[in-house]
Specification:
This protein is α/β, with parallel strands linked by helices and 302 residues long. It is built from 10 helices and 8 strands.
Length: 302
C-alpha cells in the first residue's frame, strides 16, 4: 500500500472537483459525471449487452469464460440524480472479472424527475422479475456504490417488508445511508473529503427528497431502519469521506440487530476509492475482498 499513491490521488481529485459558480444545472452535472466516469478503463475478460429488468433498462455484464452460478444486481452511484449503468461500469466489470459471476446493472429512475422512493420501487421490481424468472434468491447479491450502495440496502429492506425471500448478501461501496446528515463525519471530514461538501450534499439531497422528511427508514437506514433479518453485509468505506459514519453507524446497528456485518475501512482514501484500480493499490485489494465475500455467499442457481 502506497501513501504516495493516496496523496497523489487526493491532489488530482481536489483539482478536478473545484467548486463551480454558479452551481451547474442538472443537465451539466449529468453530462460532466458521465464524462468523468466514462474515462475509467474497463478490465479485459468481460462482455456487456443491453437488457431490461423490472420494466427498466439495464446492462448485463458477463465474464467471457463460462460464468459461475449467481447474479449481482448492481446499483450505480450519482446522488440519486446522476449516473447510469455506464458510469459504474468500471466497478461492475471488475466485480464480474474477479468473481466470475454475471451482473445486471439497473438504470433506475433519477430525481428530480422521479424523487424518493422511485429508485427503491425500481430495485424491488427488478428483484421481483429475477425471482419470477427462476433465479434463486440465495444466488443473488445486491451491490452498489455511493447512492447505489445505499439503494442496495434500502431495496433489501423493501424486499423484506414485501415478504419476499432476501438475497444472499449485500456489498456497499461508500454507501449513502443517512439523509438526515447527522453523522459526526459530516463535520469532522469537511475539507478532508476531496469530493463532497456539506452544502453540495444538501443541494443534491433536496432534489431526491422533494420536501419529504429524511427521518424515515428508507431514507436514513443508518439511523432509523429496523435492520433485523437482513442478509450478510459488507460495507467498504474510506476515512476521507463525509459519509464515513453512515457505514460505521449502520454496521453498529446491524450487529446489534443480529446481522452478520463486515465494516471494511481503508485509511486515507476517498469516496468510492474502488474505482481507482489503476492509481491505488488499495482499490484492487478492496475489490478482491469484495469478490471473496460474494463468492463465499452465493449458492444455488443463478
Amino acid at each position: 500500500m502506497s501513501a504516495e499513491q493516496r496523496r497523489s490521488l487526493d491532489a488530482q481529485l481536489r483539482t478536478a472537483a473545484g467548486e463551480q459558480e454558479p452551481p451547474p444545472s442538472i443537465e451539466e452535472m449529468r453530462s460532466g459525471f458521465a464524462a468523468l466516469m466514462g474515462a475509467f478503463p474497463l478490465p479485459s475478460g468481460v462482455s456487456r449487452a443491453p437488457t431490461s429488468l423490472g420494466d427498466r433498462p439495464a446492462v448485463r455484464v458477463e465474464p467471457e469464460h463460462p460464468a459461475q452460478a449467481g447474479t449481482i444486481l448492481y446499483f450505480h452511484g450519482g446522488s440519486f440524480i446522476l449516473g447510469s449503468p455506464a458510469t459504474a461500469m468500471s466497478i461492475t466489470a471488475q466485480l464480474v472479472r474477479r468473481t466470475g459471476i454475471r451482473a445486471i446493472s439497473l438504470d433506475y429512475r433519477l430525481a428530480p424527475e422521479h424523487p424518493f422512493p422511485a429508485a427503491i420501487h425500481d430495485g424491488l421490481a427488478a428483484y421481483r422479475e429475477l425471482l419470477a424468472s427462476g433465479v434463486a434468491p440465495e444466488s443473488i447479491v445486491f451491490a452498489g456504490d455511493s447512492a447505489g450502495g445505499g439503494l442496495s440496502i434500502t431495496t433489501a429492506l423493501a424486499v423484506r417488508d414485501a415478504g419476499l425471500p432476501l438475497p444472499a448478501a449485500i456489498v456497499a461501496f461508500s454507501p449513502g445511508l443517512d439523509h438526515t446528515r447527522s453523522g459526526e463525519s459530516m463535520q469532522s471530514k469537511e475539507g478532508i473529503d476531496p469530493f463532497f461538501t456539506r452544502e453540495a450534499m444538501r443541494r443534491t439531497g433536496e432534489l431526491y427528497l422533494a420536501g419529504q422528511d429524511p427521518a424515515q427508514p428508507l431514507l436514513s437506514p443508518a439511523v432509523h431502519a429496523d435492520l433485523r433479518g437482513l442478509p450478510p453485509l459488507l460495507l467498504q468505506v474510506g476515512t476521507n469521506e463525509l459519509l464515513l459514519d453512515d457505514s460505521v453507524r449502520l454496521a453498529d446497528r446491524a450487529r446489534d440487530a443480529g446481522v452478520d456485518v463486515i465494516l471494511d475501512v481503508t485509511a486515507g482514501v476517498p469516496h468510492v476509492f474502488q474505482a481507482y484500480v489503476d492509481d491505488l493499490d488499495e482499490a484492487a485489494e478492496a475489490l478482491d475482498r469484495a469478490a471473496l465475500f460474494i463468492r463465499q455467499r452465493v449458492t444455488g442457481r443463478g
